[in-house]
Amino acid sequence: MHFHKDSLYANPLGDITAFQFDEAVVNVFPDMIRRSVPGYGAMISAIGMLAGRFGQQNSVCYDLGCSLGAATWAMREQIQADNCRIVAVDSSEAMITRLKQNMPVGGGKSSVEVVCADIRQIAIERASVVVLNFTLQFIPLEDRAALMAKIYQAMLPGGVLILSEKLRFEDVRQQSLQTDMHEHFKKLQGYSDMEISQKRTALENVLIPESFSVHQARLLAAGFGSAEIWFQYFNFASMIALK
Ligand code: GEK
User: Fold this and answer.
1) Which of 90, 96, 182 best tests ligand 1's pocket when mutated (most atoms within 8 Å of CB)?
2) pLDDT in tens, the chain (243 residues)
3) Distance from first CA to last CA of the chain, Å, rounded?
4) 237: which residues sit within 8 A by CB, 6+ positions away?
5) Phi-psi domain of 83 (left: phi exceeds 0; alpha: psi -120 through 50; beta: other)
6) pTM across the whole model
7) Which atom of ligand 1 is nearest to 40's Cα?
8) How many Å lie between the centroid of ligand 1 and the Cα of residue 66?
9) Ramachandran assignment for 58, one of left (phi > 0), alpha (psi -120 to 50 degrees), beta (any other)
10) Kind of pairing between the strands at 59-64 and 127-133
11) Is 26 in the pocket of ligand 1 (CB under 6 A)?
12) What are the residue boundaries of the structural domains of the chain, listed by start?
């Protein structure tokens, strides 16, 4: 299946509707995420490495908000434990349809179950690895604590949660600097000022970033023993929380 270059916001749009993970987005998704999220490739490979280390025998690794399964395939490559299966979940039917058409063959011993569902609704059990790679930021603020508590409860001792998010900064100058640097990154990736600005409008009230201290406090309140950033590139960060 062929993917295209992201030019969804390249022409002036009279009416900019709220961003959705529909078929138009799916068609350009690999290009869009790589050119929009600084460090995306590095985070995907590290998720594979972490799954190799934390994936336990007779347990489940979850990729929540899996999109086209980049983190799922990276985990499958690296998991060595016996009977350690992967469950990949996304609420976008367009994403899940395409993921199923694009499943790479081979590449590991773990089985992969693909589920089209809202991650707030699914049951989670015996989890050794849980990945939320740029997904929590799309969950309504009021639902985030309950989701974290559900994940924590479902995790085995010694389990890991990898939480990657766009961050906001409480300090006004940091917020403006890091936002500017991200936009500079996008320009170097070939996005025009108009594309950047129209995408910003489409994501308003859809992608809601929080600060690291808010994430950390929520993770600790859910029960995690520690939560730290292991990777950051401007306002995009990935955290590791340990049970
Ligand atoms: C990657 N992790 O390539 N339930 C399930 N899925 C959801 C929900 C929900 N409530 N809300 C949003 N999503 C991927 C990238 S993209 C990040 C993740 C981005 C899904 C949504 O359909 C989309 O596929 C994904 O979360 C977010 O490593 O585009 O910035």
Assistant:
1) 90
2) 578 888 887 777 777 777 787 888 898 889 999 999 999 999 999 999 999 999 999 999 999 999 999 999 999 999 999 999 999 999 999 999 999 999 888 789 999 999 999 999 999 999 999 999 999 999 999 999 999 999 999 999 999 999 999 999 999 999 999 999 999 999 999 987 888 887 887 788 889 999 999 999 999 999 999 999 999 999 999 999 999
3) 39
4) 164, 165, 167, 212, 229, 231
5) left
6) 0.96
7) 28
8) 6
9) left
10) parallel
11) no
12) 40-168+207-242
Indicate if ligand 1 lies below 6 Å from the C-beta of 124. Answer: no
Tokens of 70: 């980049």
Q: What is the CATH number of domain 40-168+207-242?
A: 3.40.50.150
CA distances from 41 to 26, 36, 82 (A): 18, 11, 27
Tell me how far the alpha carbon of residue 180 lies from the centroid of ligand 1, in angstroms: 24
Q: What does R_g of the chain's alpha carbons equal in angstroms? A: 18
Ligand 1, atom 26: closest residue by C-alpha: 65
In short, whether 67's Cβ falls inside 6 Å of ligand 1 is: yes
Q: Pick the residue whose CA is nearest to atom 10 on ligand 1.
A: 118
Q: Is the CB of 72 under 6 A from ligand 1?
A: no
Name the residue at shortest CA distance from atom 11 of ligand 1: 138
The number of the ligand 1 atom at minimal distance from the alpha carbon of 21 is 22
The residue written with tokens 């998010």 in the block is 165
Residues with Cβ < 8 Å from 118, sequence gap 6 or more?
A: 91
The backbone torsions φ and ψ at residue 230, rounded to the nearest 5 degrees and listed phi first, read -110, -15
Is 155's C-beta closer than 6 angstroms to any atom of ligand 1?
no
